[in-house]
Amino acid sequence: xxxxxxxxxxxxxxxxxxxxxxxxxxxxxxxxxxxxxxxxxxxxxxxxxxxxxxxxxxxxxxxxxxxxxxxxxxxxxxxxxxxxxxxxxxxxxxxxxxxxxxxxxxxxxxxxxxxxxxxxxxxxxxxxxxxxxxxxx
Length: 137
Description:
about 140 residues; alpha/beta
């Protein structure tokens, strides 16, 4: 039986077609579905030392809501706390940002779809390894 991974789309994206390709991805391990789309995001609540505005984990947790069954992954085109491109938000929720990695993907001719699928597989592996929960231990 394949696991279900819920995708939450947060905010504006320069190219919306990537989500159609991601949801069509065929995997023997999991099935992806777009759970919701949250377009109107609040202003990021933090400025880094480089004066970039970053979304903090607590702010993203509030935006994404409570955990559901299974793994939930938010995808955002904005800077995250500490300029990471992936952050754990709660036990079963993570967020991926491709804003900071997009120049590198373009420079090496790597598609955003491939980057997102690879990152989703990585998050799914961590989710399974920790008995269907993320853990700080």
